[in-house]
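Supplementary notes for students who missed Thursday's class. We covered one full example, reproduced here. Read the sequence, then the structure, then the short commentary at the end.
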Amino acid sequence: MTAVTVQAPATERFPRPRGLVLAMLRLHRSALWFWLMLVTVTAGTLLWATFPGADAAWAEYTDLGCDRPRPSLGCDDPGPANVRYQTLVTLGTGFLGILPLLTGAWAGGALIGRELENGTAQLAWTQSVTPARWLAAKLAVPALLLTVGTLALTLLHRVLWSSNSTLLGAMDWREWHDNGVFQVNGTVATAQALAALAVGVLAGLLLRRTLAALGVAVLAVASLVHVLDGLRPHLWPTETVTAAPGAPLASDGMVVEDGALTADGARVPFPACMGEPACADGTGITGYYADHHPASHFWPLQLAETGILLAVAAAATGTAFVLLARRLP
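Structure (token representation):
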């Protein structure tokens, strides 16, 4: 009699990377839907402002005669079309501005702190998921979603800024180097979101408490953004322009430092009589100077700040993996 050996089917190791990603998306589906909603609403806002909103605002602006050499006094009080346009542009720009704070708060509180506090992470580690794989998924999936969404909104904002430059300039809108505009017109917005994600994850691993990690992450991200805002003018060499007394300084970019010049070339503050007749004769001033960044410095400044933010993100990520490994047996 021949014995028949029935081989048991090979059990599939659970969870595979795909299963881990799906489990994480299911666990944080509320945050995923919230992110998709914000990206969709912001994209719609920017698109409306770029095309029909800008057309209506410009038509209203020209109907009032505000584009003429001598505009009327009514141009100081924009009409409803211009108010709607400015409101939507502000909302679209403002969302990208607060994105780092939202990302850091969510990463520190919900993504890491809450799971360590209620034991969800420890349960996952008993289901054939190593802590390193768990943390890698926690970082990789949100990083991918943040990068795709933020870059898409940045491109839409650049289209808005480039196609409506005449309208924005006529309405005395903000310059390219203002904090909000500079941040969302290049790669800095995406780098800020990635740095906030890494900092929030590190705060969650350090504190292991939802509210504490949320608060520390928001404070750390806000401090990082504030420090880089102040450091930005010094990330690239400036250009210097000079002018004789009575002549205007041709500095239409980001002015870092300005003042007056004496006969021996020394830099001194602007005199108190600035603008008065014969001011330069009585003070020994021979000219004026300004160290500034012209518009051509936009991308060098963008890439320098982006590099710093990505370095912060890499350092926080590496520290998070080391900390996780040292805290586990």
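Commentary. Confidence is low (pLDDT under 50) at residues 1-6, 8-15. The chain is about 65% helix and 10% strand. If anything here is unclear, bring it to office hours.
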